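**User:** My hope is that you can spare some time for a protein that puzzles me. I have put the entry right below:
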Amino acid sequence: LILSTIFTLGGLAYAGSDSKEMKQTVAPAPTCPINWTGFYLGAHAGYGWGMGDMSVDPLPSAAAFVNLAPTTFDPDMDGFVGGVQLGYNHQSGIWVFGLETDFSGTTLDGSSTLSPIIQNNGTPFPGAGNHVTVSQDIDWMGTVRGRIGFTPTCRLLLYATGGLAYADVNFSGDTE
């Protein structure tokens, strides 16, 4: 009768028996079927919203411009966002380095109206044209950014990214 025990220590498997013999076997290196190297292309679509305050300061000064008081508006924007992204990753061991860009068209817009226009002394502006409407919209936007990450497991990539963002943002104000 031979009694045996098997245990694992630090990636090495040891087998022993009651006859005091020990054999050492090295566990095979784990293989990962996932490699993050390569180009990728994708599309995205969704809905966006945001809060964007807009300050209006009468120029050249509030007193010279019919004594109007500076005002802050909140033309909160919302709308559709959709576009494409393109990128490349290179994996070296557990480390992944990449570069990505994306471009989106949007219908993000918002407006806010103040009526009546308030003067510096706190009273409403008299006469016609006693309201101000401000608007802002984003027609398109995009980013270019780098990535660095690591793979603690085959199917998990943890990363940080940073770069440049750009957009076509329009602001306008109108009184009537």
User: Anything to note?
Assistant: The longest strand covers residues 132-153. Residues 1-17 have pLDDT under 50 and may be disordered. The two ends are 103 Å apart (CA to CA).
